Amino acid sequence: MEVFYFALALFLLLNLIVGMWRVLRGPTAADRMLTAQLFGTTSVALLLLLSQAMEQPALRDVALVFALLAAVTAVAFVRRAWPQVEREDGNR
Fold this sequence. Notes:
It contains 3 helices and no strands.
C-alpha cells in the first residue's frame, strides 16, 4: 500500500510542476491566485498521503496549517484585488 501512496504523491508533485506554468505565464493576477490555491490544496493532499505512508501523524498537523493558510490567502487576495465600492448612502 505504501507504493500506491508514494505513486500518488509523485503524481501530485507532477501536478505542481505543471501548475508552475500558470504561475509564470498567467495573464491575470486571478489566474496566478487560482494556481496558488492549487498549490495549497495539492500540498495538503500530498502531506496527508505522506503522513499515511510514513506513519508520521505530525504531517497531518502541518497539512491543517497549510489548509488554513490557503484559505486566509484567498480571502486576503479577494479583499485587496476587488475593493468594495461605496454606495450612495456612504455605507459599504
